[in-house]
Amino acid sequence: MTEKRQSIHGQWSSRWIFILAATGSAVGLGNVWKFPYITGENGGGAFVLVYLICIALVGLPIMVAEILIGRRGRQSPLNTMHALAQEAGRSPHWRWVGAMGIASGFLILSFYTVIAGWAVAYIFRAGSGAFQGATADEIDALFDGLLASPWALLGWHTLFMIMTVGVVARGVKSGLEQTVRIMMPALFLLLVLVVGFAMSTGAFERGVEFMFAPDFSKLTAESILIAMGHAFFTLSLGMGAIMIYGSYLPQNASIAGASITIALADTAVALLAGLAIFPIVFANGLQPGSGPGLVFQTLPLAFGQMPGGVVFGTLFFILLTFAAWSSSISIVEPVVAWLVETRGMTRSRACLVSGGVSWLLGIGTILSFNVWAEWKLAGKTFFDWMDYLTANIMLPLGGLFIALFAGWVMKRFDVQDELGLGESVWFKVWYAVTRYVTPVLVLVVFLHAVGIV
Asked: At what angle do helices 95-127 and 150-168 cross, to 10 degrees?
């Protein structure tokens, strides 16, 4: 057995803190913002069922692989992949998989903080009663007005970036760990409160039926591919975040057990978000398939028309901000760790450099919604290209190569040693799925995303 490495960045104090942190990484805008509207667009219950199957066949196997790679390497994703490739006697070029993960997370952070800034802005709008009694046109005008103001977007983008790097700069135990200790229980509490409010709308049963009564006539091949892709992306896979968090996991913690818990918690948040949103939508005669505007245009209209809308609208956007914040701190951690390891920077300086460059890049996204809105390349704005490059190309390729690395490059004994499952049935099932099933499914998602299938 290879001598166990130690991370220079620190270690989570317990397995449960790791689970909270990794769940925080996975739970983000994708759960509270994206999952409800794609469920609405794709028919509800049948889509949810396919999504759960995809979590089991795509998301969970890659999560186990990414955590075990991270813990065995105990370094930033680039240096981890390099070290483990050498350990297996394989090409050092596998390090570029880690580099791609760091790069994709860095690019995602640049526009993620812009979108997350919208949620912060809406906390104050909801709290001030701006939605009360407003018409659909007035709600749309509020959102359009926010997007049309580069200075307003820059202010919220800057605030959220400061929130993110401020946590990461304090280190693993003082920053990341202390933040998730507070933020994740608060996020779950807020979500339960909003679900409780949804139960009082008179349309809760309709929301439950919409989400859990499968109508396969509404399910299309496109819906299945969307479910498969979201199952992969919702767990923050392929961007180095889960790998770097895995590098801080105590050696005696069960990777398989932690991965299952994280996947279940992430899925529970997505389902609870749907149960919070759809009853409110139905109670107000709105459309569940209203697309990306569901959270920032449809829901504010509902909050403005219902008793207690100011309180619960404010709570909802605090929830959305917390979900985005817990993800953003994990996204920036891989590049910070790499700068500390490779460039000899202090953690504070690495945060300033990575956060500063990402902040500058985010200005391109801000301008995509206003000043540069008409400047397009092949029909896509700067933001569209950033989103397309990361979500459709870099992340699927990262996940594909992680599955191949764990299943085909690392020595079977080393994988067993890190998982601690021996030759159990659970190990054999995971190993077979990771080697043969998951890569094929991720490849299908990738080929669909780039328009080949």
From this structure: 120
Backbone phi, then psi, for 307, in 5-degree steps? Answer: -60, 140
**213/381 Cα distance (integer angstroms):** 38
Distance CA 146, CA 272 (A): 28
Q: Which of 368, 444, 62 is nearest to 240 (CA)?
A: 62
Q: How far apart are CA 328 and CA 300, in angstroms?
A: 24
375 to 177, 271, 273, 310, 390: CA distances (angstroms): 42, 38, 35, 38, 20
- C-alpha–C-alpha distance, residues 403 and 61, integer Å: 8
The domain locations on the chain are 15-102+118-149+197-319+390-449
pLDDT of residue 295 exceeding 50: yes
pTM metric for this prediction: 0.91
The residues facing 380 across adjacent strands are 377
Model confidence over 169-197: pLDDT tens digits? 998 888 899 999 998 898 888 888 888 88
**2, pLDDT greater than 60:** no
Closest CA to 334 of 116, 2, 81, 84: 81
Q: 4 exposed, middle or buried (CB, 10 Å; 0-12, 13-18, 19+)?
A: exposed
Burial 145-180 (b: 16+ CB within 10 A, else e): ebbeebebbbebbeebbebbbebbbbbbeebbbebb
Q: What is the per-residue pLDDT across 200-211, written as a single tens digit (0 to 9) for each?
A: 888 899 989 988
301, 139 Cβ separation under 8 angstroms: yes
Neighbours of 293 (CB within 10 A): 14
Give the range among 169-173, 218-222, 346-350, 411-415 with minimum mean pLDDT.
Answer: 218-222
Question: What is the spatial distance between Cα 273 and Cα 295, in angstroms, rounded to a whole number?
Answer: 11
Burial class (CB in 10 A: 0-12, 13-18, 19+), 243: buried
Tell me which residue of 130, 115, 94 sits closest to 390, measured CA to CA.
115
